[in-house]
Structure formats: C-alpha cells, structure tokens
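User: My collaborator sent over this chain with a note saying "see what the structure looks like." That's all I know about it. Can you take a look?
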Amino acid sequence: MGEADEHPGRRSFLRGIAGGVAGGVVAGGAAGYALHAPPPDPAADTAALEGRLPAVPFHGKHQPGIVQQQPQTAVVSFDTTAGNRAELTDLFKTITSRARFLTAGGTPPPVGIDGPSSDSGILGPTVVPDGLTVTLGVGPTLFDDRYGLASRLPAHLTPMRSFPNDDLDPAQCGGDLILQLSAGNTDAVLHALRDIARSTRGGMQINWRIDGFRGPARPAGTVPRNMLGFMDGILNPPMSEAKDLLWIQPGTAGEPEWAADGSYIVVRLIRMFVEFWDRVDVYEQQQMFGRDRATGFPLDADSLYAVPDYAADPTGAVIPINAHMRLANPRTPQTASSRIYRRAWNYDRGIDQVGDLDMGLIFTCFQQDIQRQFEAVQTRLIGEPLVDYISPFGGGYFLALPGVRDTADWYGRALLT
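Assistant: Without extra context I'll predict from the sequence alone. Here is the result:
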C-alpha cells in the first residue's frame, strides 16, 4: 500500500484513539468585538451587517438543499413515534409547514398572555431566512410494518453497508428520517432545529445529531478546506448530467412512482485523527490525496480545476495509483456512471474520552443509485493509504423526498396517499 506499509504500528495506535469516538463532548465558545473595535455602523445594510444570506425558494420539483450548500449545517436523524399512518401524515405536513415558514422568514404569530411563545426568539422578533434549506429524507426502517409502507420501499434503499476499516457505532447510524438544516449562520440552523423539534414533539424523536461547518476558502477564490488541510469538494459532475446521476427519473425500473424527482442520500460521519496526521510530512500527505496541499492543484497540473491526465501517467509516477482522487474517480468510461454529487462539512466535537481531539468530516453525497454510485466509489477506496488516518463511525442511507411543488403540496404526499 505504498508509503503506509512502512509504518506497521499506525493501525494499533489509531484503534486506541478510536475507542473514544462515541464519547465526544461538545465544545463551544463565543467571540465578541476586540477591545477597541468601533461599533457597527447603524446605517449599514442590515443583511450585510449580520452576514445573513437571502432566502432560498422552498417550492420546486426537487428539494433545494440538495444542490445548495450553505456554510453551517446540522444533520439530524429521527425515529418516528407517530402511532399510525394518519399520524405520520400529520407529521410530514407539520414539517412541511414549518420548513415553508422558516425558509421564507417572517414574524411569528402573537399568542395570548398565558400561552407559550410561538418562537424561541433567538433570531430576534423577526425570523430571518439566512439562506436556510431544509432537506428531508426517509430511511429503510420507515418501511417496516408500522405504517403499511413495505410495498413502497425504494429499490436501492437498504441499511448502510459497513466497509473494511469502518468502525460503525450503531447509536450513530440509521434512522427512520434524516433532516438536514443548512444556513449562513449557526443561530439560524439551531433556531430551525428547535422550531421543528417543538412542533413535531410526539411524532418523532432525535436518534443522533451532528453539526458541521465550512470555513471560507483560503486563499480567497479557491475552495474551503477539510480538517486535514486539503481543499474539499473541488469537482462535482455538472448539473447537465443530473438526469443520469442525481435525480430518480419517472418510470425508472424497480423504483416506486412516488420516488421520482427524489435522490438517494448517503451520510458518512468520518473521524479524522488530526494529531497523528499533523506529524506526517506534507509530501506524503500530497501523495495520499494526489493534490498539492497549498494550491489544490492535481500533482500533474497547474490549475485548481484541471482534469488529471491518468492516461499519461499509467504507472502513477506523478499521481500515485492508490491516491485518493485517482481511486475515487479513475476517469474511465467504465466508471463514469459511478460519479456522485458530493457535499461535505467539517465537524468539531471537542475531545473524546481519552482527551484526543474529536474532529472530522460530515460526508454526504446524492445520487440516483447508491449501489451503482457511492458503493462502487467506496469499494475502490478500500485499503487506500488514507484509511490509517480516518475512521468512519456513523451515518446511513436515505432517500431525499421529491420537492414540495407549491403551497398545496407537502413532503411525502405521493408516498403517503
């Protein structure tokens, strides 16, 4: 396995670290103005001053959060507690109603003197949309015998497969529903989570949750970086190929009609052993990724978005045969149909039970067929040198529902009616 084989003690060392993955603690902090910083200019544009993003339209053929990636996110798995199909329908309608309001923003309705507040107030008296997107998916366990949905199970929706070198924690895997809330700022994400959790109490219960962020591109004009210091998500297939790679098409063999215009989601929670990684020389790091760490350029090119020429480097003299980027996308006619639409955020959960930093990646990808696409990619990555520095520990397979088309529509309408 190239460079990795020269260090046989790595895996035993890393397994000792990984023991604390499930016990990470949440670390938080607050930042204010510098001591002598001037106050904000009250005449400045409010949205620019607060760093708020404009509203993302909620209605459409597809859920907008699939293609729109915002800086802050929360990925939350729920188990449904609705007692029957009618209650499940009410749950989905409630999520739709709250998502429709939260993504548009506005003033929460007034309540009586003795009534509970209609809003948490953490965004102030008026809810600002801040680019909020709400993406709802269903997991395979929703199609058991509780709600009479077994015959409507999507063709490629299965429990998440465990690959070699995974260390999956059942407490952080799967779920009946997956909800991803993304926005420009953390308070907008948390506001939406609290609103939906309060409104759906009795219908679903949080199973696991992880929060993530994407920093600004450094240097400006490039691509944000992951916790290993490399630019993350440089290339995705063009949206012109979405019909063949991203969206489930009407009439697709084996797929139920209700799933058309949806997309399969894979969530992978990946611990990164950053303290160990930081002791690896940059040359070896670059050989593992196949890119220059500082610039993001492929090792055989001189621009960020250049397409590597593997045909001119058949033995891997420039970009190693087992480099991450080369295995993930060999760029052959045979592997073209396995490409995925990749979205990722960093996470930081403080420290684990033994005092090691608990940082890593929330990897998500969207596709038409999990087995043909994600699992094919992940199979090619088995045994790559990078596995000595990462440990996938949670996530799941889900199907993102078709979009809510108009004010009369709601999440999962075609599934539940």
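A starting point for your reply to your collaborator: The CA atoms of residues 141 and 410 lie 21 Å apart.
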